[in-house]
Predict the structure.
Amino acid sequence: MPQSPIPNILSLLTFLPLVGAIVLLFLKRPQDLPEYHGGHAEHDAPHAPEKHPADPARTTVNLVAAFFAGMTFLLSLVLFGAFRSDYVESLTRNMQFLETANWIQVGNITIQYQMGVDGVSVLLIVLTTFLSLLCVLYSFHTRQRLKEFMVFLLLLETGMIGVFCALDLVLFYVFWEAMLIPMYFLIGIFGHERRIYAAVKFFLYTFAGSILMLVAIVWIYQVAGTFDVLSLSNPQTPEGKKLAEYGLRHPQAMLWLFAAFSLAFMIKVPMFPFHTWLPDAHVEAPTAGSVILAGVLLKMGTYGFVRFCLPMFPKQAEETAWIFITLAIIGIVYGSIVAAVQPDAKKLVAYSSVAHLGFVVLGIFSFTQVGLMGALIQNINHGISTPMLFFIVGMLYERRHTRMISEFGGLKLVVPMMSTMLLIAVLSSIAVPFFNGFVGEFPILVGSWISRKTYDIGGYGTTALAATGMILSAVYMLWWFQRLMLGPISRPENRHLPDLSRIEWTVLAPLAGLVFWIGLGSHFWTQRMDVAVEMILPQHMEAVNPDLPIQQVLDQQRIETLKRRGVVPMELGTESTRRVPPVQAPGASTPVVPPGPMGGSVPPSPPFPGVPPPAGAGQATPPAPGVPGGAEPDNGAPPAGPPSELPPGSFRGAPGSGAAPSGPDTPVSGPSSGNTAEENR
């Protein structure tokens, strides 16, 4: 497993913001500036610079909060740089930087502190630390309860990072619930007029789903005897086998377990019809709260589907995929139509999130790798474009103290730089080519088009209906931009609004840069998720429509990908692979296939239908009598038969276990002990 340049980097990354919050508690409280509750003025006068006496305590709080948020972001960049996109280890589901320790021991019950990241979670961690830093910088101007505001932001960051790192169900649940508390206070204390109603509604909705998930977690422990996510997600471990066998014996109970997890994640996304808490929370939250809510918290729902529902309940997820696809498409169309008629700019952006995250759910439950990849990259894209929109709406509110779209118009003549940034965010949101939104939504629609799950609902018309969301998003977003920025200046109050300040440039410019970076160089980001996508949705689980000729193209692409990693497919349409990098013999013009782990050479065979065998396939070593595949008997090989039981929490094939993994989903290691192509070479 790759080693981090910093020991225990995940723990340090998770709890560094918590340390910053504790340090802030011991600092002197800054004086509140005269302004309406929560930092929002009552009057409608244009924003103008105000002179206030210097307050060293305010400066100290801002700098300390920015230091800890900045150091956390830098640590996430170190993690991102040390992450190996080509690392493959099925026993640990390709997790890197694993940290494991006993946390709670009560009788025979053991709850572990287990952390790790793969290509999905590492990008979400970088997004979380990046947006948290921007929110801290933007909140320097918070006028009332500045210290408390920064404390809640840092506490929230710890909870969010912990959710994306946790690999124990109880530890995950603790972080999942912990991040609700600071967000509740950010909305309830620093929000707008109906902040208490919005905060309570947000908490009750999400907490209700979380309680059902906790019941399911306890139920799973009674069945499998562990909270270890890696063991439960791997059918080759004793715990994973127990869970799978329980599903065969009690399919109805397994469906209820899947429903309990799914409901918690559906509320968090939020999916239709569990979305009603989102507009209220967005509208009443302060700007930084709306940014974190849209940029990170909503991603926890889609992350939960990918991390828990698909690996732990694959059969149930496949059987109920039509429900999620249907609700996702309803959310896409409904969210777009409702957004178009909103008079409040912030509520318009909130309903657009319902539509955009409907695309993400559609990609996940299309059960195609291209759709899943599109969903994961769209998760990141939405965390860039929508926070950018919320930042700009907050900037307009601070200047005019209103969010009503009718109060604006012609602002392009007054604030041209803000208008440019808003146009970039709008084009990103409607998925224009060369912007980041396109590289997410287009693969999702492709995955939906070739998916048998989507086709079974309503044919190709199902995907066509989902694609109308892109058209509708252009309608309401461009119309919104036109009413805000274009045309004549309709209000005299808007004639003297200031353009972007230094802090506002610092917040918006990096987001605009990422919009184009992902839109023009998406491979830099998607390559880190390739291995994770193949682990979450292996080829034999894909639901590609067999009536389409795309299957042969996907097979050929898969072969090329495996060859680049030094893996040779061995069986038709399965995940069985053997890591046998070609060895160049002295004086030979072609590589020589090295011997297999049981002696004889491996005869190349066409791994997929329609793919011609490689040159020299007819020169394979003839099979030995009674030995499949031409391999000689090996007295040192482990005997056939049922695998021996291992202690809970261990993995087959792990060092010291004395057993090798088996099954169609587990690579068979060759003579080399490494796990990657580089180590084999």
Summary: The mean pLDDT is 81. The longest strand covers residues 96-106. Residues 101-116+168-534 form one domain. The chain has two domains: 101-116+168-534, 545-680.
